[in-house]
Amino acid sequence: MKKNINKKLKRVLIAILVILISISSFLLYREFKYPSCEEQKISLFNYDNKATANYEVFLKPNILYPSKSLGEGEIYITEFVDFINTTFGYEFSGNNVADIQGDYNIIASATGFIKGEDKSDIIIWEKDFRILPKKSFSNKGNTAKIQENISLKLDEYNEFAKAVIEASKINTSVNLNVVMTINLQAKTNNGTIEEVITPTMIIPLNTSMFQIGGNTNVVKPGAIEETNKVQLPINKNQVIFFIIILGFFLIALTYLIFFTKSVLIIKDPLQKKLKLIFKKHGDRFVALSKEPFINSNYINQVKSIDDLVRIADELCKPIMYKYSIDYRDIDRFYVINEDEVYILLIDDYIGKEEIKIES
Q: Which neighbouring-strand residues pair with 98?
């Protein structure tokens, strides 16, 4: 048995389902025809840069240390230090052949500074000493290596720091920054690599004892990369979801077309009018279980509910009607005052039965 449904509502639902089926079909088609892609980086040439600054502190003859030198990472007494032997090294290694060229130099920079409010260093003065002039290197292959041994006489730099402080009358902290700057260019079949590496040693000056710090071990890997778009496999979960949704919409559309009957319902103006009357004046009405007995020669028929309401207000009487579940049986309203009756006939007021027309 087909289920009745409002004709206009049926048309709207069919239109919505057709649109949803079209969208779901398009999304399912697109998932198969145009799979998703993502960008992936492919390494064409991988390489490593490694730079080191190692040192050994050699001592003057003294009453404390039996050995001639001390290794890295210790606290050194300035009066016992003779010189510092440093070894700067650099190595470039790639996973393929390259035309490697570059240059490097070593500079010692004496820097006078004070601490700012945020604990950062504020440089007051600076003096550079060229330890090693610029030198070039080259190689065609996978690797390139350089190494330089430098000896630093600590007394010379301490004397310079003291002389600046005495001459300037500014008592600052002083560091000796020993920096090796390496500029590298490597030409490969996949492009050119340019790198700048700076291993650094920091030696405090004008102190009775010190520790050596800085960035003494620099490791800087890199790569020449190419970005490609890679097609991803079809998302099975998404395909299953679209199929389920599409199937649901198709079933709903089939049910609407073949298992429902369109019914055009013309709204009953009587029903609308009664609803409006009860909404506006319902607190004045008295519902009776049966029609009241009227024995009067004075029956006055009124033309509107507003007229009947004014009469009821004037006489201070309720408006009565016979109650019925079916609104079409409510056909009149009364106001009774002793031997007078005022009546409103709904059929004369307005009325039309509900009509159903099958499509």
A: 141
User: Could you tell me which of 101, 105, 104, 124 has the C-alpha nearest to residue 114?
Assistant: 124
In this structure, is the dihedral angle defined by the CA atoms of residues 30, 35, 38 and 44, taken in order, positive or negative?
negative
Helix axes of 269-281 and 305-315: crossing angle, nearest 10 degrees: 30
Q: What is the DSSP string of 179-238?
A: EEEEEEEEEETTEEEEEEE--EEEEEESSSEE--BS--EEEEEEEEEEEEEEEPPP-HHH
- Banded pLDDT at 352 (limits 50, 70, 90): very low
Angle at which helices 236-258 and 7-33 cross, to 10°: 160
216 in Cβ contact with 199 (< 8 Å): yes
pLDDT of residue 236 exceeding 90, the answer is: no
- Alpha-carbon distance of 69 to 348, in angstroms, equals 126
CB atoms within 10 A of CB 297: 7
> If we measure between CA atoms, which residue out of 171, 198, 151 comes closest to residue 51?
198
Cβ(21)–Cβ(242) under 8 Å?
no
Would you give the DSSP letter of residue 120?
A: -
As a 3-state breakdown, the chain gives helix, strand, coil percent values, each rounded to 5, of 30, 50, 20
Distance of alpha carbon 81 from alpha carbon 57, whole angstroms: 7
The answer to whether 356 and 265 are in contact (CB under 8 A) is yes
- Cα–Cα distances (Å) from 204 to 123, 201, 278, in that order, read 14, 10, 100
What are the residues facing 193 on neighbouring strands?
186
Taking alpha carbons only, the member of 253, 327, 264 closest to residue 18 is 253
* Cα 274 to Cα 19, 117, 143, 328, 342, distances in angstroms: 40, 86, 99, 9, 19
**pLDDT tens, residue by residue, 159-198:** 999 999 999 999 999 999 999 999 999 999 999 999 999 9
Over residues 272-283, the pLDDT tens digits come to 788 888 888 888
